[in-house]
Specification:
single chain, 147 residues, mainly beta, Lipocalin, eight-stranded antiparallel barrel, 9 strands, 49% strand
Length: 147
């Protein structure tokens, strides 16, 4: 075989190989499963709802209620206790909750500031509160059971 024939044969072999590789389909990729149309996303954890509080004070225990609405990190709602119902505002950032309101107790305005931690499952919370001129107290809260 001459050099010329060898060269031509090499060109043909390379051409056939290139032609075959161009026709070989790419390897199949396994498609990712699509989410089930019936599966719903997990609900976001939130403090929205009615809560029963326990305040441990020097003069005894009080059990006011909270009615909270959470939108993002912002919370609004009401605190209802011995001296009436008062609008509150605050925040929940990760598991840290803070809220405050001003209540009128026997004709005196008292600023109430609550700070605490929300449990990881958002089924309880606890912390400390500055009760204005009435001192500091420990508090805890649990969601009211739905009837």
């Amino acid at each position: 075989m001459s050099i010329r024939n060898g060269f031509i044969t090499s060109l043909i072999v390379c051409g056939v190989a290139a032609s075959l590789s161009a026709q070989t389909p790419p390897p199949q990729q396994t498609p990712k499963p699509s989410p089930s149309p019936t599966a719903s996303p997990a609900p976001a954890l939130s403090v929205t709802g009615k809560w029963t509080m326990t305040l441990e004070m020097q003069m005894g225990t009080a059990t006011p209620t909270l009615d909270l609405t959470q939108q993002g990190e912002k919370i609004t709602g009401t605190y209802e206790g011995r001296y009436g119902k008062f609008a509150l505002t605050g925040t929940v950032k990760k598991n840290v909750i803070e809220f405050s309101f001003t209540m009128s107790a026997e004709g005196t305005d008292v600023a109430m500031v609550f700070k605490g931690q929300v449990a990881a499952d958002f089924k309880s919370m606890k912390g400390d509160a500055d009760m204005g001129g009435m001192g500091e107290v420990a508090w805890s809260a649990a969601p009211q059971k739905k009837v």
